[in-house]
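User: Structure tokens for this complex, please. No commentary.
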Amino acid sequence: MDINIRVAGEAGQGVKTTGSLLVGAFAHMGLHVLASQSYMSRIRGGLNWFDVRVGDRELFGGRESADLLVALTKIAAEVLRGQLAPGGRCVLDSPAGPADIPVAFEQAAREAGGSALMANTVAAGAVFAVLGYAVVGLCAYLREQFAGKGQEIIDKNISCARRGAELVGRQGACIPGPVGSGVPKTVCSGADAVAIGAATAGLRFYTAYPMTPSTAVLTYLAQHAESYGMVVEQAEDEIAAINMACGAAYAGVPAMTGTSGGGFALMVEGVSLAGMLELPVVILVGQRPGPATGMPTRTAQQDLRFILHAGHGEFPRAIFAPGTISQAYELTRRAMETAHRYQTPVFILTDQFLMDLEATVAALDGQARPIDRCIVTGSPDYARYALVEGGVSPRAVPGGESFVVVDSDEHGQDGHLSEDLAVRIAQQDKRMAKLGGLTAEAMAPEYYGPDGAETLLVAWGSTFGPAREAADIVADKGGSAAVLHFAQVWPLNVPAARQRIAGARRIVCVEGNQTAQFASLLREAGLIGDCEHILRYDGMPFTGQEIAARLERAGGRRA
Amino acid sequence: MSVDLARADSKPAWCPGCGNYPILKCLESALEQAGVDRRRLVLVSGIGQAAKLPHYLSRPVNVFNGLHGRAVPAATGIKLANHKLEVVITSGDGDMYGEGGNHLLHAIRRNIGIKAFVHNNQVYGLTKGQASPTSDAGFVTPTQPQGSLSAPFNPLAVAISMNCSFVARSFSGDAAHLTEMMVAALKHTGGFALLDILQPCVTFNRLNTFKWYKDRVRKMDGSHDPHDRAAAMELAMKWGQEIPIGVLFRCERPTFESRLGVLAERALVERCT
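Assistant:
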């Protein structure tokens, strides 16, 4: 079982603080937690909410409906009350009906000796009481969380938490929460997983211009740069970022940049440069809805075709699209390895949903395990672009025995510019030969569900979680559905995909865009013909509930 | 069957009489005089005729010939990855002051230890004769038939206003002076160095010819104190009958790389093994 708690209020009011408190405290109790955020593009005001889904089994996506709404403003209650599940309750300052649970958050905080800011702790205490959890669980977490802030802060927060619980009272314990294991779990966000994955893989240089939803990676790495022995630089623009990353990669350090669609548009020429110079540059793209500035704080899977084709000219690339937080960690490492093995740009294509998603995960390995940079010492007569089988010329870096010459113009084996047509063909063929190796080691799509399921949901990137939950809902209702998830969207592992797609009766591609971009890619590869689509492009993430409902509706129509 | 262009692909790809030839020659002797270890030298450039220079040195060096306008960020990445390398940009006025203008400002802000040698011929050569950011107002070209309507960019004044740690100007027609300025820039250890090199374009700039520059450039005498910002600014604003050449400005600021604790013990690239 699981409960979805929606904390809602204005930007700047502590919605996230309250949500994070709950996430931390539940994880501390050994519960499974998954938290997703919905926020507007502003610093103050508006309506933001933070969903904390808590369960006794692993959770993979959010839910449309909430069981408990913690409304920090009147507007929040008015707008979101309609999303309450049957039997759902609302905790708020001024109740509108008998089912509402009144808690005057700020007033209670002051009565308990705290500041108005500690209204967040009051709210968390109230949630504990509604779920029937002993408030000591929250207090234990508060002690840990505020350990560095002094006894006074701890005491005040604890008394605020208790006050919140008291106000709800015994009769308020109306939504029994799932039972935790008692063994604390680790919480991580998608953005932090990318950052930790990169840092432990030996990233030495990260540069970016802030852009939602990729900024959290820049923030994490900037704050941990010293401990990982890394330089993190906020570039003057995205063009500078990608070119700095190219320069750093040339000089021999694992380098990465991150942005979202609009910023990536500025990087495109630099991506082509990395392709031409054969530099191992890793680019994180956190998608949000476009065109143009679009919806800065929302999610989308609209840039697959853009990333796949970005950069003038033809050159090989790989694109990884993690489906879970753990996969974001693993695939960031894999992206760095792939970039270095093939000396070409490699992408981590994700989105606001996964970047901001927080969940309890199996602890990520924080130990440094640097990847192999695949660098040779070279010699004085070294030629950077030697023609070799497979196209991967031995890579030396400047400062040693070799002179390393790289040029964005077409160049000969020595790297110096050449306008010779035969040289051009030889070098272009050499670069593209690397696509063969990249394809040979492309990841097989992951299959979830019973073999021979009636319905096959095809998903890529962050849609994995919601699709998986949809398959479970279908199974619970006596149907049979499976998920085929592509965590690598380029190059495709066609044979492995074909094996899974063949024989499936009903194929439904689930994507966060309007034009079914991934389905068209599968068609290009000859993997599917006509199929059904479940598409979403309102800026909100898919949920299992929604996919299952749409499957049912579409299936009904077909019948 | 492709045409075999190997024999026609002559190098350097510059016009006879181009100011780039003496700049190349001066750079080679300046590297020698400054005692630069070529293995630890990276020449970085963007796109344009000047940007081809790193390909034409008589002895091998490391080269990063990147994108138009993006020499500065590429050089910044290289310097941060390995600050023990000598990173020198040789590129043109379009590349450094036009397409890459924003990067120049931020490199000066950072005061990162890069030397930028800007070949400034006040015209776009490789694209065949359009106005550049430093073209004099009224400069007539096929794409500015009424003459350039924009005021020329003053790189030296901008650099001085931002406390660029080393600001100098020279002329490709005065080999001794140019070499001296390059050596001074190469020996500068205090951060970003900008050397603006006036250079005729024999094909596309019929206004600012070799003679035009020759008649106007004035070597600064020893009386100028490069630490005097106001005096430096006054010299930077001079353009017309007299164009001062020499080291206009110096100022002491910590370098970007010296402020990064991670780089204190060893270069970033040395942390990879």
